[in-house]
Amino acid sequence: MTTPTPPLNVLFLCTHNSARSILAEALLNHIGAGRFRAFSAGSSPREHQQPHPLALQALQSAGVPTKGLRSKSWDEFGTDAAPQMDLVITVCDNAAGEACPYWPGHPATAHWGYPDPSGVEGSEAQRLAAFHKTLLAIRQRLEFLIGLPAEGLDRLALQQHARALAQR
To answer: Which of 59, 48, 39 is nearest to 16 (CA)?
Structure first.
């Protein structure tokens, strides 16, 4: 009998934690098959920030649960009481350029840049299409990540694989 491997903790970072990082958190928790546990946060979420309604709508239409999603500061994950992260991925260029807090455990890091779907102008259908497009792009990288063999998920290999996925 083998001991089950604990899931890898992945933190997705963005500036406001309302769109791209929320999409990534919900999607990885949905498709990660218990091998991953995803979280998201922002470097500077606005006061009373909530997940973008179109992000929630895109997730729901893709069959991804949205219950419990909330915008939060990355400060929540820099404390000793926070879950220790195995991988931290920035999903917007602004957050990638900011000085990140100390992450307990020195997790692997990567940057997967995506255009901000909340910045798209046009009809509601056009704006929702931008969220779906971003969700699809995130899903493509996450499917490669979850397809990695367990032995390829030590810290160094995880960082190399996650950074290579930015090129896809």
So the answer is: 48
How much is the pTM?
Answer: 0.91
Measure Cα distances from 133 to 24, 58, 78, 100, 129 in Å: 13, 9, 31, 28, 6
Mind giving me the DSSP string for 26-37?
HHHHHHSTTSEE
**Structural domains of the chain, with CATH:** 8-165 (3.40.50.2300)
The pair of three-digit structure tokens given for residue 85, joined into one six-digit string: 């992260």
Please name the residue that has the structure tokens 């940057």. Answer: 111
**So what's the pLDDT on residue 152?**
64
Q: Rounded CA gap, 132 and 64, in Å?
A: 12
The residue with tokens 């973008």 is 52
Q: How many CB atoms lie within 10 A of CB 127?
A: 17
